[in-house]
């Protein structure tokens, strides 16, 4: 059984005859202890406070039966780890200038600039762009209501833990004089370029040890494994 905030993505699951429903990760409408295993892939890094990120993991643990397992993936601040660049960084030069796309029907038509593990179509318009946040440390800090967030340059290393990531929508048109970006279309397309609007999504990228520390703060789970995988920090939890 799957769930997502995006109705469009849930509809795709329905078209493929999978069971899925729309819900919020902070409040999943399922009985406590009803799951043998749960996965949370590229979800928790979209919550903007430490409290909400912790609450999401607690909710995931609530769904597990005793002995049940959970797998969590979040985007890593360290896109170069142990002298190896992540696939995300490598694709900037390795894709020969052509955007890769997600290999699913509707999503494939809508998104061209994907990030590791993310495929949601619920793209939030950003606020103001920023130039003045230069925090290169890995000290987690809350995002204030009047804070300005830096906008990430795709396929580059992260300069801040809290940022906005540009996403490009295909098939957009120029309306009312609004500026739009030129986005490369996939390699198998007959068109070379097309105009499309740019949207920005919030991300909190995790530093080494941060996700594991959050999980260890809960007394209802045990961290079985913590590891790095292609630009993501990952943990496997067991419900006590």
From TrEMBL:
GO annotation (BP), single: tRNA methylation
One Gene Ontology term of the molecular function aspect: S-adenosylmethionine-dependent methyltransferase activity
Gene3D superfamilies: Vaccinia Virus protein VP39 (3.40.50.150)
Any Pfam family: Methyltransf_11
Keyword Transferase: yes
Record's keyword terms, sorted: Methyltransferase, Transferase
GO cellular component: cytoplasm; nucleus
Domain of life the protein comes from: Eukaryota
Domain Methyltransferase type: 1-72
Keyword Transmembrane helix: no
Identification of the protein by name: ALKB8 protein
Species whose genome carries this gene: Pachyramphus minor
Gene: Alkbh8
């Amino acid at each position: 059984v799957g769930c997502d905030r995006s109705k469009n993505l849930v509809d795709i699951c329905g078209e493929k005859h999978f069971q899925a429903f729309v819900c919020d990760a902070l409040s999943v409408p399922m009985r406590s202890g009803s799951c043998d295993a749960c996965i949370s892939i590229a979800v928790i890094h979209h919550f903007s406070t430490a409290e909400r990120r912790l609450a999401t993991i607690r909710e995931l643990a609530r769904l597990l039966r005793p002995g049940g397992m959970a797998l969590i993936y979040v985007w890593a601040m360290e896109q170069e780890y142990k002298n190896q660049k992540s696939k995300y960084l490598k694709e900037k030069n390795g894709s020969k200038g052509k955007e890769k796309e997600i290999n699913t029907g509707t999503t494939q038509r809508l998104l061209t600039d994907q990030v590791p593990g993310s495929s949601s179509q619920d793209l939030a318009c950003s606020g103001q762009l920023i130039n003045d946040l230069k925090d290169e440390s890995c000290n987690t800090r809350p995002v204030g209501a009047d804070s300005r967030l830096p906008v990430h340059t795709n396929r580059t290393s992260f300069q801040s833990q809290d940022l906005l990531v540009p996403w490009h929508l295909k098939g957009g048109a120029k309306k009312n004089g609004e500026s739009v970006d030129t986005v490369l279309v996939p390699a198998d397309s007959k068109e070379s370029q097309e105009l499309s609007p740019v949207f920005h999504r919030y991300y909190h990228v995790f530093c080494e040890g941060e996700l594991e520390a959050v999980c260890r703060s809960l007394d209802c789970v045990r961290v079985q494994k913590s590891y790095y995988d292609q630009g993501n920090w990952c943990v496997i939890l067991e419900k006590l």
